[in-house]
TrEMBL record:
It catalyses: 1,2-diheptanoyl-sn-glycero-3-phosphocholine + all-trans-retinol--[retinol-binding protein] = all-trans-retinyl heptanoate + 2-heptanoyl-sn-glycero-3-phosphocholine + apo--[retinol-binding protein]; 1,2-didodecanoyl-sn-glycero-3-phosphocholine + all-trans-retinol--[retinol-binding protein] = 2-dodecanoyl-sn-glycero-3-phosphocholine + all-trans-retinyl dodecanoate + apo--[retinol-binding protein]; 1,2-dihexadecanoyl-sn-glycero-3-phosphocholine + all-trans-retinol = all-trans-retinyl hexadecanoate + 2-hexadecanoyl-sn-glycero-3-phosphocholine; all-trans-retinol--[retinol-binding protein] + a 1,2-diacyl-sn-glycero-3-phosphocholine = apo--[retinol-binding protein] + an all-trans-retinyl ester + a 2-acyl-sn-glycero-3-phosphocholine. Residues 50-177 form the LRAT domain. It is an enzyme of class 2 (transferase). It comes from Enhydra lutris kenyoni. It is a single-pass membrane protein. Keywords: Acyltransferase, Cytoplasm, Endoplasmic reticulum, Endosome, Lipid metabolism, Membrane, Sensory transduction, Transferase, Transmembrane, Transmembrane helix, Vision. This is Lecithin retinol acyltransferase. The active site is at residue 161.
Length: 230
């Protein structure tokens, strides 16, 4: 049974990670839309390769399945609203993605290389070097990805696209991006100035909104927990 306190903390951290990387989901400029027409050397990709697309703050990952097909995990709120595959199989828009992150609903889906990369440069098997792990055979990697196709719960911290590809590629789901974010949060928590800042914000919310439970309790408990954690 999940601990309600840990679950609430997890949700808070995920919202902070979403907000800190909000530019990632912003609408593209005309130049970026034009870049979507970039030509990719698909013939150089091997079935089972990990394709990595750097974004503004985060990196998106997928597994190449061959024949211009990429399996990748995508948050999509539309999955919770309809079973119409004609709608859900269309390229996921920014709004669908953001709401999918908030709603924790996603799917491991197959898109073309062009739709997966959205005009960005593609790195191939870069995780092999950065994680210094031995990869499984490419065919096994691709088969693992194919077995996971379909709907899946989503979490920026515990089950994102990086967890998906590292499980397929190395046999263990890990996310250095999420780990780095958690480490940064720990640094902030250990900084006693964050306790003072949260206390000031709490008092300001009470002053503006009045002495009610939804302002008073956070104003007391958030600085207390930060102080204890620090």
């Amino acid at each position: 049974m999940k601990n309600p306190m840990l679950e609430a903390l997890s949700q808070l951290l995920e919202k902070l990670l979403l907000i800190s990387n909000f530019k990632l989901f912003s609408s593209g400029t005309p130049a970026e839309d034009k870049a979507r027409n970039n030509f990719y050397e698909i013939s150089s990709f091997l079935r089972g390769d990990v394709l990595e697309v750097p974004r503004t703050h985060l990196t998106h990952y997928g597994i190449y399945l061959g024949d211009n097909r990429v399996a990748h995990m995508m948050p999509d709120i539309l999955l919770a609203l309809t079973n119409d595959k004609g709608l859900t199989q269309k390229v996921v828009s920014n709004k669908r993605l953001i709401l999918g992150v908030i709603g924790r609903v996603a799917s491991i889906r197959v898109d073309t290389v062009e739709d997966f990369a959205y005009g960005a440069d593609i790195l191939v098997n870069h995780l092999d070097k950065s994680l210094k792990k031995k990869a499984l055979l490419n065919e096994e990697v691709a088969q693992r990805a194919e077995k996971l196709l379909g709907m899946t719960p989503y979490s920026l911290l515990w089950n994102n696209c990086e967890h998906f590809v590292t499980y397929c590629r190395f046999g263990t789901p890990i996310s250095p991006q999420a780990d780095k974010f958690c480490e940064n949060v720990k640094i902030i928590i250990r900084d006693q100035r964050s306790v003072l800042a949260s206390a000031v914000l709490g008092l300001a919310s009470i002053f503006c909104l009045g002495l009610v439970s939804y302002t008073t309790l956070p104003a007391i408990f958030i600085p207390f927990f930060l102080w204890m954690a620090g």
